[in-house]
Design a protein that fits this description.
Elements (H helix, E strand, L loop, with lengths): L2 H13 L16 E5 L2 E4 L4 E4 L2 H4 L8 H11 L13 H13 L6 E5 L2 H18 L7 E5 L8 H5 L19 E3 L8 H13 L4 E6 L3 E2 L5 E2 L3 H13 L2 E5 L23 E4 L11 E5 L1 H9 L15 H14 L3 H17 L8 E7 L2 E6 L5 H10 L2 E2 L6 E4 L7 H17 L1
Helix pairs in contact: 3-10, 4-10, 5-9, 7-8, 11-13, 12-13
Length: 424
């Protein structure tokens, strides 16, 4: 590490508050100097294969020439313009593309700043629409335990209320309606209990919100897509809106373009983010049906009561369209299948290893669950020593690599996971 690097880390320790940690931090973060392809180059000269896609967003890797060009071209035109009373081509093109790509019926797009805000907007949509439809008493949300929907207040209220990272806010957040976590395989008894719970709370529920097929930061659990069909049927029957949070699962991560595609159902509202811009800029989108939009627009507010300063940012919209263009040829599906195969062969030997409770793989997601909490510092250091960047949490050591990761780097990632498991 150079003296300049050490000085930067000292400034970081003195002033920069990192996510989910104390101030100052317990351990110095790794100082990244640059990134290209699937590699992070540290200030001390080491290179790490990124097994996290920068929190699941950089699906095309770093410094992709198509995305770089889209960003540079748009910066030469305009970096930002307010969206109130104005519009522009990057936002229009992106919205039209998202309507084409998402499940049928989602025709209207509200562009947001981040995933958490996208969920806030979805909740506002549901609450405003129910009120406009003459059902103002429907103010609660239902979900299942083990979920994660963001760090702002209403999204926190539908995260896991006990085991999640937001238990600190119990008693402050609105009390919502929770079902048990969905089993991995389909169980009719669970489906019946889910249907019964929603029916019993019909008069107070504005919406049901879930992460389809994969529960992300709440525990990296997978569940049978049939439960999504159950939810679609019961919510439609009782006039309750169905929200799919596809912020983590959208754009191919599970092996289908959207996780909802595994079930062949359409929600009333869908939240997108993370990989939307290929990890270049923060951007999210909340889509809804014409029925939801019409109810809100005819209601007392006269429109959706939300308007971020950086809504529809042209830079973010331009790079998002370029990212979706890279996915349009369908080659992502072959890459994700190859990654899935590498994860299965590379992680399966860990099943039954000391301290390992479970190993599970779906698409470009590989998870090793321990029977004890991860020693974060030791596990991370072991992965870094193996040339891999991972970010374990709770009892999980997992990877969501960029789709452009080749077989050799996938082998390095699974070896890094094995090293982290051994160190924990």
């Amino acid at each position: 590490m150079t003296p300049a690097g050490r000085d930067l880390l000292a400034l970081d320790r003195a002033h920069v508050w990192h996510p989910y940690g104390p101030m100052p931090g317990r351990n110095d973060p790794y100082l990244v100097q640059s990134a290209a392809g699937v590699r992070l180059r540290l200030a001390d000269g080491r290179e790490l294969v990124d097994g996290m896609s920068s929190w699941w967003a950089a699906v095309h890797g770093y410094r992709h020439p198509v995305l770089d060009a889209a960003l540079t071209d748009q910066a030469g035109r305009m970096s930002h313009v307010m969206f109130g009373g104005l519009t522009h081509e990057p936002a229009i093109r992106l919205a039209a593309t998202l309507v084409e790509l998402t499940p049928p019926g989602l025709e209207h797009v509200f562009l947001c700043d981040s995933g958490s805000i996208g969920v806030e907007v979805a909740i506002k949509m549901a609450l405003q629409a129910q009120r406009a439809l003459g059902r103002p008493g429907r103010q609660k949300l239902a979900t299942w335990r083990g979920g994660y929907h963001g760090d702002t207040f209403h999204p926190m209220s539908v995260c896991d209320p006990e085991g999640g990272m937001h238990a600190l806010w119990t008693g402050v957040l609105p009390a919502q309606v929770f079902a048990d976590p969905p089993p991995a395989a389909f169980e009719q008894a669970y489906a019946d209990s889910l249907t019964d719970l929603i029916a019993r709370h019909e008069g107070e529920l504005a919406a049901v919100i879930v992460e389809p097929v994969v529960q992300g930061a709440g525990g990296m659990r997978f569940h049978d897509p049939e439960y999504l069909r159950v939810l679609r049927e019961v919510t439609a029957e009782h006039g309750i809106f169905l929200i799919f949070d596809e912020i983590a699962t959208g754009f191919g991560r599970t092996g289908r373009f959207f996780a909802a595609d595994h079930a062949g159902v359409s929600p009333d509202i869908m939240c997108l983010g993370k990989a939307l811009t290929g990890g270049y800029l923060t951007l999210a989108a909340t889509l809804c049906t014409p029925e939801v939009a019409a109810a809100i627009s005819a209601g007392e507010g006269g429109g959706l009561m939300h308007g971020p300063t950086f809504m529809g940012n042209p830079l973010a919209c331009a790079v998002a369209s370029a990212s979706l263009g890279l996915l349009s040829d369908g080659r992502w599906a072959h890459r994700v299948r190859d990654i899935e195969s590498s994860l299965r062969s590379g992680l399966e030997p860990l099943r039954g290893a000391q301290g390992v409770a479970d190993v599970r793989v779906l698409g470009a997601i590989g998870v090793v669950q321990l029977d004890h909490p991860v020693d974060m510092a030791r596990a991370t250091a072991a992965a870094v020593a193996a040339g891999v960047w991972l970010r374990p949490f709770r009892d999980l050591i997992y990877t969501m690599p960029p789709y452009v990761t080749d077989d050799a780097d996938m082998a390095r990632i699974t070896a890094g996971i094995a090293a982290a498991v051994a160190a924990s």
